[in-house]
């Protein structure tokens, strides 16, 4: 199958979607158990990568350790996420993800959908691929003297979709400066009209140092991805090098919050989607800032697709 792996959340429609994690709370087993870290911890819904917090699995050091979840039904699966532990040594390099209807390791009907190259400590990798049908998802780590640790494994089938809302439209927007008739709120009015003269774009003063724009989501959210629409009638290059930052602090107007993504270039009038590294980021404030001197920030729409913190799979209706 065609496989893409990246530190991004999976997005499958024009309006991206939050997919049902069918591995959540399902029965999991592993080849051995080390440090009292049972296999079920990797499907408890907790993506905390800190091993000492007690939500990660671990095998003993052995040859070819493995972990497996029984989804209880066969699904057509097209995406899997794995959260790495915060171990100083990356224990998952070379790991393999298999999908199939057999628990036999050498069953040729099972399909290897991905090989894990490198997951930074404590972060989440998202693997997407052409749909593969199977009841069992297995993570194997070939080799001798290997320890397999997993902090969360999420399995997303093609069959279940739940739309994410654009929570920016309910937020309050501000920016570093404002030209007449180009308030920050114009970038969260729900319109992607990219012609500045139409009156639906925000605009800071020209040639200022580090111009910024911010939306207050009113409460902390788990932000999955952000869509940004660039100005269409001119000046598309002005947005080059901008950064999307997300967090709960208003220090330096929110521009010191962790960086979700960088904008290299958005073509005039186009909308690009930016996924936060690690799969998602928690925060109340979403900033777009352009570092540097003599910069101008124009935004015709910023959409933030997120769910409030504390949401679990049981809170969602499919």
TrEMBL record:
What range(s) does the Fucolectin tachylectin-4 pentraxin-1 domain occupy?
19-165, 166-310
What UniProt keywords are attached to this protein's entry? Calcium, Disulfide bond, Lectin, Metal-binding, Signal
What one GO molecular function would you report for this record?
Answer: fucose binding
InterPro entries (UniProt xref): BG_Antigen-Binding_Lectin (IPR051941), FTP1 (IPR006585), Galactose-bd-like_sf (IPR008979)
Which N-terminal residues, if any, form the signal peptide? 1-24
Any Gene Ontology biological process: regulation of complement activation, lectin pathway
Q: Which domain of life is it from?
A: Eukaryota
User: What is the purpose of this protein?
Assistant: Acts as a defensive agent. Recognizes blood group fucosylated oligosaccharides including A, B, H and Lewis B-type antigens. Does not recognize Lewis A antigen and has low affinity for monovalent haptens.
How does this chain assemble? Homotrimer.
For this chain, the family text in UniProt reads:
Belongs to the fucolectin family.
**PANTHER family, alphabetized:** F5_8 TYPE C DOMAIN-CONTAINING PROTEIN (PTHR45713:SF6), FTP DOMAIN-CONTAINING PROTEIN (PTHR45713)
Give the protein name, as stated in the record. Answer: Fucolectin tachylectin-4 pentraxin-1 domain-containing protein
């Amino acid at each position: 199958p065609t496989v893409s792996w990246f530190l991004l959340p999976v997005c499958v429609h024009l309006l991206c979607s939050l997919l049902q994690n069918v591995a959540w709370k399902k029965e999991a087993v592993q080849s051995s158990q080390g440090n009292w870290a049972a296999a079920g911890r990797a499907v408890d819904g907790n993506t905390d990568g800190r091993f000492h917090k007690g939500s990660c699995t671990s095998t003993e050091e052995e040859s070819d350790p493995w972990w497996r979840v029984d989804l209880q039904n066969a699904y057509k699966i097209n995406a899997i996420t794995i959260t790495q532990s915060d171990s100083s040594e990356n224990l998952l390099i070379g790991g393999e993800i298999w999908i199939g209807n057999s628990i036999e390791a050498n069953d040729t009907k099972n399909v290897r959908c991905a090989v894990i190259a490198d997951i930074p400590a404590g972060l989440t990798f998202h693997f997407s691929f052409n749909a593969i049908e199977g009841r069992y998802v297995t993570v194997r780590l070939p080799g001798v003297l290997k320890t397999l640790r997993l902090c969360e494994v999420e399995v997303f089938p093609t069959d279940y979709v739940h739309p994410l809302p654009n929570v920016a439209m309910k937020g309050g927007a501000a920016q570093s400066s404002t030209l007449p008739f180009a308030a920050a709120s114009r970038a969260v009015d729900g319109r992607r009209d990219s012609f500045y003269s139409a009156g639906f774009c925000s605009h800071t003063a020209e040639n200022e140092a580090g111009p910024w724009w911010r939306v207050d989501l009113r409460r902390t959210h788990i932000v999955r991805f952000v869509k940004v629409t660039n100005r269409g009638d001119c000046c598309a290059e002005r947005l080059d090098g901008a950064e999307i930052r997300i967090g709960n602090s208003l220090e330096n107007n929110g521009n010191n919050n962790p960086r979700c993504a960088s904008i290299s270039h958005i073509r005039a009038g186009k909308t690009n989607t930016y996924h936060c590294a690690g799969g998602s980021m928690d925060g109340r404030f979403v900033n777009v800032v352009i570092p540097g001197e003599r910069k101008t920030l124009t935004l015709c729409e910023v959409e933030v697709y997120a769910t409030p913190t504390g949401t679990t799979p049981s809170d969602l209706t499919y």
